Structures are given as C-alpha cells and as structure tokens.
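Figure 3 (text version): structure tokens given as input.
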C-alpha cells in the first residue's frame, strides 16, 4: 500500500500563500496519479486539483484555478500544492490522495489511498 503524510498547513491572512507537501511511502510513487481534496466543517469533501503519473498534466477546480498550482517530484516521492491569493473560503482540511490511474480523477471514490490531512485556515 501507499502511505501519505501531508504537511505545511497553518494560519495565513487573506491574500497570502502556503505550500503544502505530501510525502509518500510504500509502492512506486510514479505509478500513481495524485489529487488534492479539501473538506470544511459540515461540507462534503471536494476536489481541488490533480496531477497525472508523469507530472505533465494538471487539472484544477474552477474555484482555485489560477491561484493554486500542483507539481510533483517523483525522485523525492512528494507532491506539492502551492496556494496563492488565499481566501477565507479556502479554509479547510486539505487531503492528499493517490489513484492508480494514468489520468486524473476528480471524485473521491477514484482514489484508493488518503493522507490524514493538514489544516489550512485563512483569516480575513
């Protein structure tokens, strides 16, 4: 199996930036597409963005497009979520997930492994 550990969350003012990291261990990291999801209290977990096996393609939810960027370093078994121009509505627990697909899945059931999440809080 694959174990995922998120880090880099914290408290930031609106308009600021954070860079989240997801460190993977276990099976070959490059064999998995990776996704980022987030979940706010009382809300369903929602797709934020994803990156394919090779890192040549990314896809983002409309709510974060132009502000968030995903990249991966397969040599370090790590995927990143760079978050810029943060808004209070971005406040949530952010989860890293892995799917053994060549492309990018946009729904949670498409992912087989999940991290425990890291809290991101954006103050106004």
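Below: residues designed for each position.
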């Amino acid at each position: 199996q694959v174990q995922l550990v998120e880090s880099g969350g914290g408290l930031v003012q609106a308009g600021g930036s954070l860079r989240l990291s997801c460190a993977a261990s276990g099976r070959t990291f490059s064999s998995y597409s990776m996704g980022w999801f987030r979940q706010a209290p009382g809300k369903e977990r929602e797709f934020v963005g994803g990156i394919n096996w090779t890192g040549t393609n990314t896809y983002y939810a409309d709510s974060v497009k132009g502000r968030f960027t995903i990249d991966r370093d397969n040599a370090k078994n790590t995927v990143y979520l760079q978050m810029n121009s943060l808004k209070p509505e971005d406040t949530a627990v952010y989860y890293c997930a892995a799917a053994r697909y060549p492309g990018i899945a946009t729904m949670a059931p498409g992912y087989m492994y999940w991290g425990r999440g890291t809290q991101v809080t954006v103050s106004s």
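The longest strand covers residues 18-26.
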